Amino acid sequence: MRYTDVAIVGGGLAGATAAAMLGRAGVSACLIDPHVSYPPELRCEKLGGDQLELLRRTGLAEQALRSATLDGEVWEARFGLVVAKKPSDQHGIMYDTLVNAVRAQIPSSVEIIHGKAYAVATSDERQQITLANDDLLSARLVVLANGLNIGLRQMLGMERRVISACHSITLGFDVAPVGRAGFEFPALTYWPGRPAARMAYLSIFPIGDRMRANLMVYRDMTDPWLRDFRQAPEALLIAMMPGLHRMMGDFSVGGPVRIRPADLCATEDYLQPGVVLAGDAFSTSCPAAGTGTTKVFTDVERLCNIHIPAWLATDGMDVDKIRQFYEDPAKVACEAQSLAKAYHLRSLSIDRGLAWRAARWGRFAVRSAQGVRYAIRKRLPARAARPEHRVISGQSQRGRPA
């Protein structure tokens, strides 16, 4: 029997971040995951906005972002026209690269078991995990961060409820210009021109020396369009967005086209002693809405900075302690925002109702105005910094005789 205070099951982004944070805080912890190095997987491929602030709160941002690529500016376009050119803090990074960069920061004090958790038994005091090789692990708290793997949750009587099946589909692939060294834009977000395209947006951004594309669509996995896209991605992209060629010129899609459907799911009967769910193990999000990483970092930051240290300071691990995390205002707000954004973006993208049509044109107008304001602000500092050449008392402002 091995003993630890916190056993983390699952070494993806949530589990690896929790292990690194707890280990750095001096908490006795153990991470259980079968992969020595996290394998490639189509998930989060960029970080930005509030995700960066949340990552900084974990204390892991500086080293993790060294593996990322900052785009600096993103162009937004629709109908083949540039709507706005805006400053951007988007950092492109493949999911496995991000997870492995976080794993590299797990202190040696945290034991990493490369295996699978086969069974778990919980109580108000200590929890017992049985590994696939029949080894036993005793912990005060179990953090289930094993994503879509529902076996252990079902064993504990938890149920996975599908809220919206195949809510969206993400297609990930590389793009490269043909006959040119690079694209004109540093990064591009292309919005659909009509609901019939059944897309949320196309995002193109740099990762290292290549350009990565994420296409977010609303289709069924049985739709022949997905098969056709794999066979002729360039032609289907131009057919979906007739003005795209004007923005990109001739281009080619390289590497495999990876496709990942996303169900919106929530776990029921999760409030139990000795075990807490983090990230996708608790509820999933829509990749098109871009809230998945926000949810992960919110969960882990609240757990490791606030709740777990307080729980370990007193005896027991009953449901009253566990409830504090699920009722944490920051977590509750994040969950609600993530779900609302998933439904709003889907309706804004494909709903044909008059109100949603007006909303689409309203967004187009707002983004156009934002782009104009940014372009004006971008010019003003340059003009202000440029010395004027006026004659003052027989001498130019530059100090030369007039």
Descriptive overview:
The protein has 402 residues and is of the alpha/beta class. The protein has a domain at 2-68 and 95-161 and 269-350: FAD/NAD(P)-binding domain, CATH 3.50.50. It is built from twelve helices and 19 strands. The strands form four sheets. Strands 1, 2, 8, 9, 10, 11 and 17 form a seven-stranded mixed beta sheet that branches. Strand 5 (73-78) and strand 6 form a beta hairpin. It starts with a strand and ends in a 6-residue tail after the last strand.
Q: What is the CA–CA distance across the termini?
A: 90 Å
Tell me the CATH architecture of the domain at 2-68 and 95-161 and 269-350.
Answer: 3-Layer(bba) Sandwich
Query: Shape from CA axes?
Result: elongated
Number of helices: 12
Largest sheet data: 7 strands, mixed
Fourth CATH level, the homologous superfamily of the domain at 2-68 and 95-161 and 269-350? FAD/NAD(P)-binding domain
Q: Supply Rg.
A: 25 Å
- How many beta-strand elements? 19
Strand content: 25-35%
Helix content: 25-40%
- CATH top level class name of the domain at 2-68 and 95-161 and 269-350: Alpha Beta
Which regions contain 5 or more consecutive residues with pLDDT less than 50? 384-402
Query: What name does CATH use for the topology of the domain at 2-68 and 95-161 and 269-350?
Result: FAD/NAD(P)-binding domain
Find the structural class using helix and strand composition. alpha/beta
What's the overall average pLDDT, rounded?
Answer: 92
Helices and strands in order, then pairings?
Blueprint: E1 2-9, H1 13-24, E2 29-32, E3 46-47, H2 50-58, H3 61-65, E4 69-70, E5 73-78, E6 81-87, E7 91-92, H4 95-103, E8 111-113, E9 117-121, E10 127-131, E11 136-144, H5 151-155, E12 159-177, E13 188-190, E14 199-207, E15 210-217, H6 224-231, H7 233-240, H8 244-248, E16 251-268, E17 275-277, H9 292-312, H10 319-326, H11 329-350, H12 354-385, E18 391-392, E19 395-396
Parallel strand pairs: 1-2, 1-11, 2-8, 5-13, 11-17
Antiparallel strand pairs: 3-7, 4-7, 5-6, 9-10, 10-11, 12-15, 12-16, 13-14, 14-15, 18-19
Helix pairs in contact: 1-4, 1-9, 2-9, 6-7, 9-11
